[in-house]
Design goal:
CATH topology of the largest domain: Aspartate Aminotransferase, domain 2
Number of domains: 2
CATH superfamily of the largest domain: Type I PLP-dependent aspartate aminotransferase-like (Major domain)
Largest sheet: 7 strands, mixed
CATH architecture of the largest domain: 3-Layer(aba) Sandwich
Number of helices: 14
Distance between the termini: 45 Å
Radius of gyration: 21 Å
Strand order of the largest sheet: 2-8-7-6-5-3-4
């Protein structure tokens, strides 16, 4: 029998659904797939070329666990330029995706019984990572725009609180936390001696007049308590490349690197060379993607809000919409009886061939998540199918 920790773990709902959608597409079924948080743009050609060049030059061997010095230096330059943060290369650990960087940080900081505060809705893996580390996830609700309610966070703090995990811009909601909120959170963390993991992997995908603020930049005190996590999957359309990084206090980064040495060792060598090119030469490509995502956001938001029971806050970043669907709970059609968001998503997939993710995956059981990381044409067709299917429910 497998270990109890695995039995206690909930599989990733987004990955499981992604597998099902792939099978349906493989069978020739036309699916309007709003389930996957993956840009549909190609990786910038400059990055692919740099990767090929590195391989041909023989950069295919083991390297330092925490990453090549050239990439770590490029990351420090990026953090200084974009986030007003000053780090040295020994404060950086390059990992196999930002997901591993978050996991490394949780494992390096949490002892069994430590409490970890997580605002909800939250990304599917945070809770499971904390549980795997022996920690106790403490979930706190956000407001109707999915922004942090400071009073909720303060009330959740105990003498066992070790860590707060924040994600801004946010998956699954698209919320971007304000400077004022982050200043209050930083003050609380410093006063109570709590670490922050700041997952900023969507930082370049923000819209309108909203600004991205890195919490670690707000004071020397919070700088010393924050592990900044970022990566290349979302902003640079490099999901399959699996490269991310963490920046933080030297002792924490050293612990994270030591853990990584026993799990995966270094992330792929030649990809690290390509990542340097992404950081230094691809701002035009990133901006072009951001503008297109903003156009898609406007289109999906306006179209979705025309459907009864599908109203939701306008996202400020990332590429997600998260409406509350309690309007549809208890409704029926044919053999379908919609008792929860999971039932609704199953119904929509089977009847409309539209894929969305139930909110229980994100600790928000009366919601669903739409990703607008697909073409306008797919969004338009998917919204038509969705509305027809929802209109059948009574």
């Amino acid at each position: 029998m497998v270990s109890q920790r695995i039995l206690d773990m909930t599989p990733s709902a987004t990955s499981t659904l992604g597998g099902k959608i792939s099978e349906m597409k493989g069978a020739g079924i036309n699916i309007a797939a709003f389930n996957l948080g993956e840009p549909d743009f190609p990786t910038p050609q400059k990055v692919a070329d740099a990767c090929t060049k590195a391989m041909l030059e023989g950069k295919t061997k083991y390297i330092a666990i925490g990453g090549i010095i050239q990439l770590r230096q490029a990351i420090t330059e990026k953090l200084r330029r974009d986030n007003n943060l000053t780090y040295t290369p020994d404060q950086i650990c390059v990992s196999t995706g930002a997901k591993q960087a978050v996991y490394n940080a949780v494992m390096a900081l949490c002892n069994p019984g430590d409490e970890v505060i997580i605002p909800t809705p939250c990304w599917v893996s945070y809770v499971e990572m904390v549980k795997l580390a022996g920690g106790v996830p403490i979930l706190v609700k956000t407001d109707d725009r999915f922004h942090i309610i400071m009073e909720e966070v303060k009330n959740a703090v105990t003498d066992k609180t070790k860590l707060i995990i924040i994600n801004t811009p946010n998956n699954p909601t698209g919320a971007v936390y304000s400077r004022d909120t982050l200043e209050q959170l930083a003050q609380l963390a410093v006063e109570k001696d709590i670490y922050i993991i700041a997952d900023e992997v969507y930082e370049k995908l923000i819209y309108g007049n909203v600004e991205h603020v890195s919490i670690a930049s707000l004071s020397p005190g919070i700088y010393d308590k924050t592990i900044v996590v970022n990566g290349f999957s979302k902003s640079y359309s490099m999901t399959g490349w699996r490269v991310g990084y963490a920046a933080g206090p030297k002792d924490v980064i050293k612990g994270m690197t030591s853990l990584q040495g026993h799990v995966t060792t270094n992330s792929t060598t030649f990809i690290q060379w390509a990542a340097i090119t992404a950081l230094q030469e691809c701002e035009e490509e990133v901006e072009a993607m951001r503008k297109e995502f903003e156009r898609r956001r406007e289109f999906m938001y306006e179209r979705l809000n025309l459907i009864p029971g599908m109203q939701c806050p306008k996202p400020e970043g990332a590429f997600y919409l998260m409406p509350n669907v309690s309007y549809y709970l208890g409704k029926k059609y044919k053999n379908w009886s919609i008792q929860n968001a999971g039932d609704l998503c199953d119904y929509i997939l089977e009847e409309a061939k539209v894929a969305i993710v139930p909110g229980n995956a994100f600790e928000a059981p009366e919601t669903v998540r739409f990703a607008y990381s697909v073409s306008i044409e797919t969004i338009a067709e998917g919204m038509e199918r969705l509305e027809r299917a929802l209109n059948h429910l009574t």
